[in-house]
Design goal:
By secondary structure, the chain is an alpha+beta fold. It has two domains: 2-79, Alpha-Beta Plaits, CATH 3.30.70.260; 89-181, Alpha-Beta Plaits, CATH 3.30.70.260. The protein is built from five helices and eight strands, in the order βαββαββαββαβα. It has helices at 16-26, 57-68, 107-117, 152-165, 175-181; strands spanning 2-11, 30-39, 42-51, 74-79, 92-100, 121-129, 138-147, 169-174. A four-stranded antiparallel beta sheet has the order 2-3-1-4, covered by helices on one side. A four-stranded antiparallel beta sheet has the order 6-7-5-8. A hairpin with an 8-residue loop joins β6 and β7 (138-147).
Length: 184
């Protein structure tokens, strides 16, 4: 079996996941991972699937596009590439970085530039901007893996400096602490 990454984008409506997964089932694909969200009114879904060896990624894309055409969705299929080199989260600690502050251009770019400079990997990012100057209406939550050999004091200092320049309040917590504090 081969593996493919499928992205599906379009106007949100009920039944998108049901339609995509029904097509994949009919094509004898096995779904290994799904991540989906709604951004404003747009659906965004990413599926990693194992495909039978007799179905090419082109054919998979064609079948999905045809089956989803009535929903006006955009489909992209690419092979899942396993590379031996690249980021490895084996020697990392999971942290949560949150920022709150007035909406303006460059917030995500500013914070992620610092994160990238220290070799920290963003594993999940949720940013909700309602606009305006009410800081509680604009929040970003970064889930990150910080390599064990990262100087966390320098990383924290630079993140706090950048957040201050951007007019943001910032919090950096180990994921276990964040989860304990925010447990309902």
């Amino acid at each position: 079996m081969n593996k493919a990454v499928i992205s599906v984008l379009g106007q949100d409506k009920p039944g998108i996941i049901a339609a995509v997964t029904a097509i994949l089932f009919k094509l004898d694909c096995n779904i290994e991972n799904i991540n989906q969200t709604i951004l404003q009114s747009e659906f965004s879904g990413i599926f990693i699937v194992s495909t039978p060896s007799d179905i090419s990624n082109g054919e998979l894309c064609t079948q999905l596009a045809k089956g989803l055409s009535h929903m006006n969705l955009h489909v992209h299929v690419k092979p899942l590439e396993h590379k031996e080199k690249g980021f490895s989260g084996d020697r990392c600690e999971p942290f949560i970085i949150t920022t709150i502050g007035p909406d303006r251009k460059g917030l995500v770019a500013g914070i992620t530039a610092v994160i990238a400079k220290y070799g920290v990997n963003v594993t999940n990012l949720k940013a909700v901007f309602k606009g305006g100057d009410n800081p509680s209406d604009n929040i970003m939550i970064y889930e990150v893996d910080i390599p064990d050999d990262t100087d966390q004091n320098l990383l924290r200092a630079e993140l706090r400096k950048k957040a201050s320049e951007l007019g943001l309040d910032i919090s950096i917590q180990h994921r276990n602490i964040f989860m304990s504090i925010n447990r309902i």
